[in-house]
Design goal:
With 237 residues, this protein is α/β, with parallel strands linked by helices. It contains seven helices and seven strands. The chain binds NADPH dihydro-nicotinamide-adenine-dinucleotide phosphate. Keywords: Oxidoreductase.
Length: 237
């Protein structure tokens, strides 16, 4: 039986792509899921689908760059499920703007969405996990945190920053039995992935592939941390 059975998993960016696939994959293990993103209708229809699978799911419309909204997300999670065991910091946006054309507002939007959101969610989740005696935070990075894409300084910086945040939190949270890790996908066929790649479908991963890796990283005994995964498609164009 999966260790995730009955555990509470908060997934940001759950309205599409990797996050939505994660919600399905976690429910298949018996976990309860909390879905956070801005598009309320998408979240509600996913909740209906998860419930039709026999799962328990809560949708909380959340802009993860908003400090108060993140606080409300975790308050609603505690109210409904009593705590949180796993946090998947998956929300993100892509950007392909060379530095000289990028406004400061664009820079802030990318950094806030891809990096500051993970800080805000981790900050809210850590005391709740400490109270449970265990916890797991999985950040969704990118191959761009290893091999920078051309003309994407904000995105690349956000993902390198997320890598740094992961390392820092992993050290700080160990003593509380909270494992912090990072998953770097290659190109995945999602709304975001489609926007950054013109590769044919059979040369990119599916959202379910990425979700499978995230569940695999979460489905471990509490004393183990699958610290880092970098998963790319094996086929070469
Ligand atoms: P999608 O565009 O399908 O999903 C992105 C998710 O993030 C959506 O659910 C979106 O929901 C949510 N999101 C964006 N901004 C916010 C916000 N301010 N507040 C709350 N939620 C937000 O793309 P992917 O599934 O591909 O992306 C998931 C993660 O995977 C991202 O972190 C991305 O960087 C990473 N990644 C993806 C790759 C790929 O090739 N697809 C490659 C490497 C990494 P909503 O708009 O409803 O708020």
């Amino acid at each position: 039986m999966s260790i995730l059975r009955s555990r509470v998993v908060v997934i940001t960016g759950a309205s599409s792509g990797i996050g939505a696939a994660c919600a399905i994959a976690f429910v298949e293990t018996g976990a309860k899921v909390v879905l956070a993103a801005r598009r309320a209708e998408r979240l509600e229809s996913l909740v209906a689908r998860l419930e039709s699978m026999g799962g328990e799911a809560l949708a909380v419309t959340t802009d993860v760059t908003d400090e108060d909204a993140v606080a409300a997300l975790f308050a609603r999670t505690v109210e409904r499920f009593g705590g949180v065991d796993v946090l998947v910091n998956n929300a993100g946006i892509a950007d392909s703007t060379p530095a000289e054309n990028a406004s400061l507002a664009l820079w802030h939007r990318v950094i806030d969405t891809n990096l500051t959101s993970a800080f805000l969610c981790a900050r809210a989740a850590i005391p709740l996990m400490r109270a449970r005696g265990h916890g797991r935070i999985i950040n969704v990075g990118s191959i761009s945190a290893r091999v920078p894409r051309k003309e994407s300084p904000a995105y690349t910086a956000s993902k390198w920053g997320l890598d740094g945040l992961t390392r820092a939190l992993a050290i700080d949270c160990r003593a509380d039995n909270i494992a912090v890790s990072i998953f770097h996908p290659g190109i995945v066929a999602t709304e975001l992935g489609g926007g950054i790649s013109s590769l044919p479908d059979d040369l990119v991963a599916r959202p379910e592939d990425a979700a499978g890796v995230i569940v695999h990283m979460a489905d471990l005994p509490d004393h183990l941390n699958f610290y880092e995964a970098l998963v790319v498609q094996n086929k070469i164009p």
